[in-house]
Amino acid sequence: MATQYMYKLLVYVSMYCTLVDQAESIKPIIFMHGIIAAPDEADPLRGFVEEAFPGTNVTAIDAFNHLQSVVPMWTQINTIKEMVRESLVNSPEGVNLICFSQGGLICRGLLSVLPHNVNNFISVSSPQAGQFGDPHQEALYTQYNKFLAALDNDTATPNATLYKNNFLRLKKLIMIGGPDDGVITPWQSSQFGFYDANDTVVPMKGQKFYERDSFGLKTLDTRGDIVLHTVPGVQHTHWMKNRTVFEKYIKPWLTG
């Protein structure tokens, strides 16, 4: 009887220690919602995280919600950076970013303008290489696009070195997307792929900003710190609600 009691006690102690170690290894999570959405877009994610890692802090950025999400991107980034500066810059243990759709571009902007302490940036179905762009008008794009062209350092900007150095503070970049998304066009933009002048999709490593290493993407890849997850069968509005997506492609990057 005593032996059985001691066995159960050891099992409980082992489980407790495992949970404590796991909780200590999970960094706080900051989530940025997509276009025409709001912080409650993080609710399914928050539930998944709480089940997997009880007590983990998940903060959903409460800014530029619903129709306000169409405000110019630099306006959004410059406002949000002051809201999250303390967490992104001064968090001693670092944080993880999970950003969905347009939110992934906002988060990438934050990673460029702040000397951050972000561990993993998980970009979920975000048009990192653009959306519905026209590869036949590259000169006009670089001349008139004030956001993505500057962020990619495709145009002369005094902040080019700053953006690159800040971006490279990132430990890992995890990009999740898939062919059945139905919104991101081309869907490969979620992994830095985009059309060329012949309307053929060119993957990340064939893009000029990668070859030139204009903002540090090639350096990050050479370090072995870019992870691509291609997931079929998931529509755009279902990414953050899909338990399998969380379990297989997000959860593993929340530890360590």
The span between the termini is 40 Å
Strand fraction equals 5-15%
Q: What is the overall silhouette?
A: globular
The description of the largest β-sheet is:
6 strands, parallel
Name given to the CATH homologous superfamily: Alpha/Beta hydrolase fold, catalytic domain
Give the SSE order as H and E letters. Answer: HEHEHEHEHHHEEEHHEH
Tell me what the CATH architecture is: 3-Layer(aba) Sandwich
What is the number of strand segments? Answer: 8
Structural class: alpha/beta
Explain the overall architecture.
This protein has 256 residues and is an alpha/beta fold. It has one domain (29-253): 3-Layer(aba) Sandwich (Rossmann fold). 39% of the residues lie in helices and 14% in strands. It is built from ten helices and eight strands. The chain has helices at 2-25, 43-52, 73-90, 102-113, 138-144, 148-151, 160-167, 208-211, 217-222, 243-250; strands spanning 29-32, 58-60, 95-100, 118-124, 172-177, 194-195, 201-202, 226-230. The protein has a six-stranded parallel β-sheet with strand order 2-1-3-4-5-8. A two-stranded antiparallel ribbon has the order 6-7. Helix 3 packs across helix 4 (102-113) and helix 4 packs across helix 7 (160-167). The chain starts with a helix and ends in a 6-residue tail after the last helix. Mean pLDDT is 87; it is low at 1-24. Keywords: Glycoprotein, Hydrolase, Lysosome, Signal. It is an enzyme of class 3 (hydrolase). Its EC number is 3.1.2.2.
